[in-house]
Amino acid sequence: MATFKAIRIDKAEKGTTVALTQFDEAELMEGDVTVRVEWSTLNYKDGLAVTGKAPVVRRFPMIAGIDFAGTVEASSHPQWKAGDKVICDGWGLGETHLGAYAEKARVKGDWLVRLPEGMSSREAMAIGTAGYTAMLSVLALEKYGLTPSDGPIVVTGAAGGVGSVATAILSKLGYRVVASTGRMAEADYLKDLGAAEVIDRAELSGPAKPLAKERWAGGIDSVGSTTLANVLSMTKYGGAVAACGLAAGMDLPTSVAPFILRGVCLLGIDSVMCPIERRKIAWSRLASDLDRGKLTEITQEIGLDEVVGAGAKILAGQVRGRIVVKIL
């Protein structure tokens, strides 16, 4: 096809414009693998990009979408051949490299991960960058040495994409999960995912004390700002918190007290430029440690023409679980 459907973002006099349109294949960027994109997903960063609420996009024109799953159409990379099923997330997709909300993508073969055996492309994107980030966070806590016997793990933004998958994974691994959410109406949903306790995010939204009562052995935080500060102040001696998001802001109004008086560690999680070998481990673990039944229950499907509207909803905190985007 000389042209294909894509969600295109262009620079405007004030901000950006976004439209579902035809994109010329000749405009695809350099890469040694061309993929027929079958499924993508909607992440918080995608919401920022398609609504123009934050300067996520740094090249114009841009095809939005930070992750995809599909089938290799053509390849000059030694590892990949036509017909291979692949996953791609991060690496600047939808930011500096033309992204996933399109019927075709051209990327570097070194960016790709093989679709795990027994996992469909749709399931891979039901997991998406949010779920992959959740698994990177779990792996970081495990590498630090935390085990279920150490005590509960708090998950913030628990009804969102990262939080939902993190809750499901941790509970399956035997951890007692404390799910923090601003939507207490979702308590039953979170308990179905495996949360042992659900708390209102208001408990973590006030000004943080240098040290507060010890409540958990660790945490996975996708919120940032004051929420992360409170989580750190309430972490038990020798605990650790994996920080992977900034939905509430990039600031961190805390002190050194949790680190030097309780020996708490703050583990930074980056999904965008994460080394390929760590990605392979994460996707392998997702194939084995995530209950597919629960994944199905937390996933809803939309088309390309619904992405922009859904992007506004995810920023407003009106999306729970995962949204997959059907491309072909």
Topology summary:
Blueprint: E1 3-11, E2 16-24, E3 33-41, H1 44-51, E4 62-63, E5 67-75, E6 85-89, E7 104-107, E8 113-114, H2 121-144, E9 153-155, H3 161-172, E10 177-181, H4 187-193, E11 197-200, E12 216-221, H5 225-233, E13 235-243, H6 257-261, E14 265-268, H7 276-289, H8 292-297, E15 299-303, H9 307-315, E16 322-326
Parallel strand pairs: 9-10, 9-12, 10-11, 12-13, 13-14, 15-16
Antiparallel strand pairs: 1-2, 1-4, 3-5, 3-7, 3-16, 5-6, 6-8
Helix pairs in contact: 1-9, 2-3, 2-7
What would a concise description of this structure say?
Helices cover 29% and strands 27% of the residues. The model has no long low-confidence stretch (mean pLDDT 96). It has two domains: 142 residues, Alpha-Beta Complex (Quinone Oxidoreductase, Chain A, domain 1), CATH 3.90.180; 140 residues, NAD(P)-binding Rossmann-like Domain (Rossmann fold), CATH 3.40.50.720.
Question: Can you describe what's shown?
Answer:
The chain has 328 residues and is of the alpha/beta class. The protein has two domains: 3-115 and 298-326, Quinone Oxidoreductase, Chain A, domain 1 (Alpha-Beta Complex); 129-268, Rossmann fold, CATH 3.40.50.720. It contains nine helices and 16 strands. It has helices at 44-51, 121-144, 161-172, 187-193, 225-233, 257-261, 276-289, 292-297, 307-315; strands at residues 3-11, 16-24, 33-41, 62-63, 67-75, 85-89, 104-107, 113-114, 153-155, 177-181, 197-200, 216-221, 235-243, 265-268, 299-303, 322-326. The strands form three sheets. Strands 3, 5, 6, 7, 8, 15 and 16 form a seven-stranded mixed β-sheet that branches. The protein has a six-stranded parallel β-sheet with strand order 11-10-9-12-13-14, sandwiched between helices. Strands 2-1-4 form a three-stranded antiparallel β-sheet. It is globular and about 60 Å long. The relative contact order is 0.16.
